[in-house]
């Protein structure tokens, strides 16, 4: 009885849910990606409801003969096969056929609202703040319009991708996110666009260092400045806020970085135009172009897809410091093709060649010897270039700037921008060369040199340069003379002129020799004073003695200074003292001059001869005294006779 009661109760419960289940099945519109687990009692209710509905609709038939159940026929087997778990959970057994039919209906009509799953929905309504999206779930989802700011044309009926963010919030509302779904799908689309090389649309959001930030499928991609256009971009801000076509050129999956290019889309078209233009190039051809870029060495001109270079020297017949003096960016101009390589990838253009050469307009009246005026445009160490007429220049070599034979830099005479007057020295119209001179405008100082600087005359000059053998002294502009190193001092031994004087110093000189044809002047400085060796010849004659201190020790002896002019060399063996030791540096002693040569300014002295001479003198005096003593001790003939007489007397007395 209890079992029968339970079965009747289950049938009544299924009947109550029949209408609700039928409505849910009717509203379900879309299949799901995954299938949810279904409880047995739900299956039973739906199946019995369906069976009941079918039974009600079908005409009543005669009841079939009642079959004997397993419970009645074999109670033991029934108990062994009984599902006690379903019994405790209140789940009634359902026929397998009914269960399969129910699962098929669920798969065809219900969408599985799993979290973090991207599905496609339909916009069914748009309010002031939200968009209502139908995803075929039991309720519609809500998405803020802020997530559709990139698409201001959103309207009802549009298909959008959404992510199921929350299946059911506290109010039972289904929460969706279009932004998250767009981000997830964006990476798939970006990778697909990169792999297939397809073109994508992007919205330029803002400018950044080195390029722009572009929104592509909701991903912030980087657009380098060099990839915006084939031409250099000077104002990036004009692209901000624009929607443009791009090509995905690089993806860094590790750092989620995307690089796009707009330049890549137009390069293909440009290459075709470039081939067409290059195929028609000929030397001497005049084309119209637009100034694309300006550098310090020239101008790049866009000829319509192919670039050519106008070198700075081909911009104007006149000298210019920078190309922007002639052209400006985006300027249209005509240029002539001067040359190109075999592949025609490097094209050399010219602008000045479109006008006549200024030398051709130079008048025939200009000839050698004429004076001209011009402006200094370039200065080099070897000279200065003077622009006589526009595009016509002449060179003033540094040797033609002054009559002086001592060459200096051109900057010592002129500077850029100076207006100068010069004389035409040479003129070659075919080679278009002209040499000028400035010094020719003043008299040559060597014309009356014999009157102004006769031999023996004294003058004051300025030291201009040194050499190892002498000093160059300038007496006046154009008049230089050489003082040999031996003519600098009577007494000092000068190894290099820098030891004696400095550049720029004033120096008194005497003209020693004059060569008018060779334009050479020999000078002397020591000749301005008397030769001190004339008076020292008597004072320091050989044998004279002088007292001095050892000033310097050298390898073979020592140097002593008797005064500022006279120095003497003492050989090493002549440094010996009376006790046998040698004189040391700083010791004062008496020296004897043993050699004096005025011509070679050579003096040799000795200390040893002083005491050796004394010793010899003493020895000589001792020898002389001994000789005298010996002479005094020698007996005479009278003394001998006297002694003989005394001896005779003694002998006689003894007798």
UniProtKB/TrEMBL annotation:
List the GO terms this entry assigns under cellular component, sorted alphabetically.
Answer: ribosome
* SMART domains the record matches: S1
Q: CDD domains, from UniProt?
A: S1_RPS1_repeat_ec1_hs1, S1_RPS1_repeat_ec2_hs2, S1_RPS1_repeat_ec3
UniProt-annotated stretches for the region Disordered: 1-72, 620-655
Q: Which keywords, in A-to-Z order, does the entry hold?
A: Ribonucleoprotein, Ribosomal protein
Compositional bias per record (Basic and acidic residues), positions renumbered to this chain: 1-30, 57-72, 620-634, 645-655
Q: Where is the S1 motif domain?
A: 116-179, 197-263, 284-352, 369-439, 456-526, 543-608
Q: Which family does it belong to?
A: Belongs to the bacterial ribosomal protein bS1 family.
Name this protein carries in UniProt:
30S ribosomal protein S1
Gene responsible for this protein: rpsA
């Amino acid at each position: 009885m209890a079992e029968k009661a339970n079965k009747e109760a289950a049938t009544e419960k299924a009947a109550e849910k029949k209408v609700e289940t039928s409505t849910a099945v009717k509203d379900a519109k879309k299949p799901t990606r995954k299938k949810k687990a279904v409880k047995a009692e739900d299956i039973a209710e739906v199946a019995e409801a369906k069976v009941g509905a079918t039974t009600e609709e079908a005409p009543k038939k005669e009841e079939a003969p009642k079959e004997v159940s397993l419970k009645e026929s074999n109670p033991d087997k029934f108990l062994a096969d009984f599902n006690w778990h379903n019994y405790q959970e209140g789940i009634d057994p359902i026929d397998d056929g009914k269960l399969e039919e129910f699962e098929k209906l669920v798969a065809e009509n219900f969408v599985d609202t799993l979290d973090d799953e991207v599905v496609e929905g339909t916009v069914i309504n748009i309010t002031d703040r939200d968009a209502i999206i139908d995803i075929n779930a039991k309720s519609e989802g809500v998405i803020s319009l802020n997530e559709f700011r990139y698409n201001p044309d959103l309207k009802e009926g549009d298909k959008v991708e959404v992510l199921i963010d929350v299946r059911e919030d506290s109010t039972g509302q289904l929460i969706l996110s279009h932004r998250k779904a767009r981000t997830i799908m964006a990476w798939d689309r970006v990778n697909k666009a990169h792999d297939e090389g397809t073109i994508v649309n992007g919205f330029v959001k803002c400018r950044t260092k080195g390029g722009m930030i572009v929104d592509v499928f909701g991903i912030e991609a980087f657009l380098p400045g060099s990839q915006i256009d084939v031409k250099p971009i000077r104002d990036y801000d004009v692209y901000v806020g624009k929607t443009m076509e791009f090509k995905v050129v690089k993806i860094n999956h590790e750092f989620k970085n995307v690089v796009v290019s707009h330049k890549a889309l137009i390069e293909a078209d440009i290459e075709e135009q470039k081939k067409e233009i290059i195929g028609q190039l000929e030397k001497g051809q005049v084309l119209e172009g637009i100034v694309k870029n300006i550098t310090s060495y020239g101008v790049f001109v866009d000829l319509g897809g192919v670039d050519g270079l106008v070198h700075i020297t081909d911009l104007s017949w006149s000298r210019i410091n920078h190309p922007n003096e002639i052209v400006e960016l985006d300027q249209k101009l005509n240029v002539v093709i001067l040359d190109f390589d075999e592949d025609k990838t490097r094209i050399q253009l010219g602008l000045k060649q479109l006008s006549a050469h200024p030398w051709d307009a130079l008048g025939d009246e200009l000839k050698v010897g004429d004076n001209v005026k011009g402006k200094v445009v370039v200065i080099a160490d070897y000279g200065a270039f003077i622009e006589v007429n526009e595009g016509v220049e002449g060179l003033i070599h540094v040797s033609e700037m002054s009559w002086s034979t001592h060459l200096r830099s051109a900057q010592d005479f002129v500077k850029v921008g100076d207006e100068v007057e010069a004389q035409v020295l040479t003129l070659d119209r075919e080679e278009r060369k002209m040499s000028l001179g400035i010094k020719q405008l003043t008299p040559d100082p060597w014309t009356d040199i014999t009157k102004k600087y006769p031999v023996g005359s004294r003058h004051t000059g300025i030291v201009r340069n040194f050499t190892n053998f002498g000093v160059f002294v300038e007496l006046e502009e154009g008049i230089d003379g050489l003082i040999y190193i031996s003519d600098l001092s009577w007494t000092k031994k000068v190894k290099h002129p820098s030891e004696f004087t400095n550049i720029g110093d004033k120096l008194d000189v005497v003209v020693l020799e004059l060569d008018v044809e060779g334009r050479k002047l020999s000078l002397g400085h020591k000749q301005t004073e008397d030769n001190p060796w004339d008076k020292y010849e008597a004072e320091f004659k050989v044998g004279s003695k002088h007292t001095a201190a050892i000033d310097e020790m050298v390898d073979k002896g020592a140097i002593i200074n008797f005064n500022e002019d006279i120095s003497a060399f003492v050989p090493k063996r002549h440094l010996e003292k009376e006790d046998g030791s040698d004189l040391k540096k700083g010791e004062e002693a008496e020296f004897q001059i043993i050699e004096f040569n005025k011509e070679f300014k050579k003096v040799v002295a000795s200390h040893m001869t002083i005491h050796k001479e004394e010793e010899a003198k003493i020895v000589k005096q001792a020898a002389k005294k001994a000789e005298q003593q010996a002479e005094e001790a020698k007996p005479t003939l009278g003394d001998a006779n006297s002694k003989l007489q005394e001896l005779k007397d003694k002998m006689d007395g003894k007798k």
